Amino acid sequence: MFHVKQYDVVVVGGGHAGTEAAAAAARRGAGVAFVTQSLAHIGTMSCNPSIGGLGKGHLVREVDALDGIMARAADDAGIHYRMLNRSKGLAVQGPRLQADRRCYRASVQRQLAAYNNIDLVEGEAVDLRLEGKRVTGIVLQDGSTVGASAVVLATGTFLGGKIFRGLDREAGGRIDERPSNLLGERLRELKLPMGRLKTGTPPRLDGRTIDWGRLDPQPSDDEAWRMSPMTRHDRLPQLACAITRTSAKTHDIIRAGLDTSPLYAGAIEGGGPRYCPSIEDKVHRFGDRDGHQIFLEPEGLDDHLVYPNGISTSLSAEVQDQMVRSVAGLESARIAQYGYAVEYDYIDPRALDHRLEMSELSGLLCAGQLNGTTGYEEAAAQGVIAGANAAAIALDLPPVIVDRARGYMGVMIDDLVLQGVSEPYRMLTARAEYRLALRADNAEARLSSWADDLGLLTPARWAHLEARTNMRTSATNGVRDRIDDDILREVEEDRRYAPYLQRQSDEIERMRLDGNIAILSDRITLAGVPGLSTEMIERLERASPKTLDEASRVRGVTPAAVAALWLHSRRKA
Amino acid sequence: MTDTIFALSSGRPPAAIAVVRVSGPQAGAAGQAIVGGALPPPRMAALRRLRDAEGETLDQALILFFPGPATATGEDLLELHLHGGRAVVAAIEQELARQPGLRLAEPGEFTRRALLKGRLDLAQAEGLADLLEAETDMQRRAALAMAEGGLSRLVTDWLDRLSMAAARVEAELDFGDEDEVERAAALDLPALVAPVHAEMIEMLARPPVERLRDGIVVVLAGPRNAGKSSLFNALLGRDAAIVTDIAGTTRDVLEASVVRAGIPFRLVDTAGLVEETADPVEAIGVARARSLLDMADVLLWLGEPADAPHGALRIGSRMDERQHEPSAFDHLLSIHDTRAIDALWAALSERAKTALGDGTTIVPHERHRALITSAAHELELIDGTDLLIDAEHLRLVNVALAAILGRDATEAMLDALFGRFCLGK
């Protein structure tokens, strides 16, 4: 009989979602076991060496406003800062930076180590411990059990992970790392609704073999903005990226090599991301274009690897070599690691509620790529929410739910749990209907006090927040001295859009009112609602909206069906 | 606890009979109180003497009781078929109002309750509203065009086309700085949305659907003593079915509703227009006449043809022929010449048909017009200078248009819907 060690919360998976989940649960006071196959890999960026972007930068700032880890780790590792959409309004500007992989990983591990209520556990989770319909812990490969009141699964692409390159395949969630097949099988046995998705990564180049002189350099932003307002130290030395393009010759090589593509040979069944397609997809779908941009992104200060952003691929190694060498500046480039596609299990997020808890299995929360999203930032944002709610379950604290008018995290989770996914979900500013109010630059103003009330902030953040809140008040009253530049800009932008924000507030109020109208979405109740078709009943049952407002956003649910639900709810009242 | 409501559900007294309905949990008790005993068995009609609290007989009436929920409102429902005199109805209403938990129904409240109890769906309720209001064949056809989803199709088409524009804006906002957006064609958003805006403006230029209900407004105008009142009477005099005859709120405006060739008309006879008057009362009358000119769908001008407002039908009398070329007038008539009056009516009907379409043209309701107006206004504000703000305007257009399709199940929407019902429906 193995000893069972009991925690409040167990987090499985050491990626961006898992890290934030463990830290958020710990900030709320939970004792956390953080379980991952390899402790050394915590904080690894498995794909591109950058953090942020359009929509994604909003998420990073929101995670930071909840005192998460990602933004400060990014600042600790930032070797190239670029504010995207700089020519447009602040609401759609996207902070993005290139991070030194080693520095990023070191910062994440250092920040986690500062939490004295997180135990790091190296091992593979192979099973869930269940008591009826309630999850009470996990079982490790060595047979030992880690008990907990709530379990957060953040296993990324590791469940049933399969790697494809050309006609080669191997089992794995990341190159050279084992998949978590046993846990994946177990979840399938539990009849959780699951599907397959795919994603991919480009080859990595040896930067010493790139002819940089021939390429357009893209320098880091002059202005010294940071991901987190907490960051006060100087930037690391800044590196330039460079831009090149594929050519007609590249496209010919890709077309000729398509028969070695697992995508086109039909080996991959999972849907891939439209927003981050592989180069073979781009060439196939946009055949009329004579070239696609490639951003050459350095992976670190002491690292000669370069990430060619824009040519994710799963073509065979030979085709990858030819393809790369057909690009200007890369004629004699050497591939240090070939690109590949990974296909993995995801959980239909409609099985989750807004706290990211599985409706059918209490105590089990899911976060990150496992829920069908793509990107570190999406994963991290879900991690914070799942971790905060896992702590809520364990310690009987209020739930942490961000609504669509409060933050991009709320928009994303609401989309996931009501609409589900048909391709890996990427955050876009277009998804946020209250976009003008939800800016990357005002995340702190929107979220930090709220997060403080929920016990998500550490003492270091309190002092910082108080100072910043005072500055904000002064700036609003016209003071300009001794106020952080970003707050001055924030207040100015608030003023600029004030008339629009005023109009949106009516809409938000309406949404929140509809959010107060509770509905039941079990089959029996739905069948008793006059005027609902069988199709509507099925769609509603799958997404199980709890309020009228949620029902109105379920994919394919008609206005007439919403009206019928509303009338029915009033009749009951 | 739900109020029990009552109202006269048949037409205005005096009439042969008047039906008063009582709906709600107290309907049975109220019935027993005024018949002074047991009600007849459910769904069986019986003659009963109705009395007030002092025992004085108010009327002898046929009464019916329908226990809920299998009733029109889904609640207990009492029907009193009274003698249709004004005093009888007033006395019964007074007595019902004295019963505990009873009050006079608001307009549309019976239908609203039917909807809330799931006895009707929204579409049926809208259809019922139209059906109850339809007085002419053209109204019936317009109601049908609406019911068959003509407006919904059009609005859906606008939404689709605008979503194409919105997609380009969003692509620019979300991917503009990250490659993958075709930069070849610069985005000219104002030009992209202009055709949809033009269609909205065209639709808004059509007379509101209320014209179908209330009638095409035909205003007779001109100087004093131009023969307006004679023509007014002549137009009403032959073959025209006079529906109502309402004296204007001021003594100098006379209005009559008429159905001619299946089209409802409101004929309005105005005060004579004078350039200047020192008499404040007359000044008000003249101002009123001028405002009526603005709301006229058809203006019959009986003054100097050269003074006729734009678009007016210039009417000349036989006597005028001596002073003017015949081509100066659209119609020359003598009020005793029935064929000339018929010809004028034919011209009015022609104008009305052009304005209203043949009944299959989509004519938006006031609620729809307000939403389309706001959508059109948002489109006008799109100027291509700040994509972010343009995108917000597009989003607001989308919200307004979606509300037409019913994605707006709010109290306000239901109030607007039920505001169309008369009391007792």
Tell me about this structure.
The complex is a heterodimer of chains A (573) and B (425). Chain A has 573 residues and is of the alpha+beta class. Chain A has 18 helices and 20 strands. Chain A has four domains: 294 residues, FAD/NAD(P)-binding domain, CATH 3.50.50.60; 138 residues, Elongation Factor Tu (Ef-tu), domain 3 (Beta Barrel); 56 residues, no CATH class; 57 residues, DNA polymerase, domain 1 (Orthogonal Bundle). In chain A, strand 8 and strand 9 form a beta hairpin. In chain A, helix 1 runs parallel beside helix 9, helix 2 packs parallel to helix 9 and helix 3 crosses helix 4. With 425 residues, chain B is of the alpha/beta class. In chain B, strand 3 and strand 4 form a beta hairpin. Chain B is flat.
Give the helix tally of chain A.
Answer: 18
Strand content of chain A: 15-25%
CATH class category name of the largest domain in chain B: Alpha Beta
CATH topology of the largest domain in chain A: FAD/NAD(P)-binding domain
Count every beta strand of chain B, where a strand is a DSSP E run of 2 or more residues.
Answer: 13
Distance between the termini of chain B: 22 Å
CATH-level-4 superfamily name of the largest domain in chain B: P-loop containing nucleotide triphosphate hydrolases
| Total of helices of chain B | 14
How much strand content do the residues of chain B show?
15-25%
What is the terminal-to-terminal distance of chain A? 54 Å
In the sheet with the most strands of chain B, the strands line up as 8-9-10-7-11-12-13
C-alpha geometry of chain B? flat
Q: What is the correct CATH architecture of the largest domain in chain B?
A: 3-Layer(aba) Sandwich
Q: Mean pLDDT of chain B, rounded to whole units?
A: 78
Q: What is the CATH class designation of the largest domain in chain A?
A: Alpha Beta
Shape of chain A: globular
Described by strand count, sense and barrel closure, the largest sheet of chain A is:
7 strands, mixed
Helix content of chain B: 40-55%
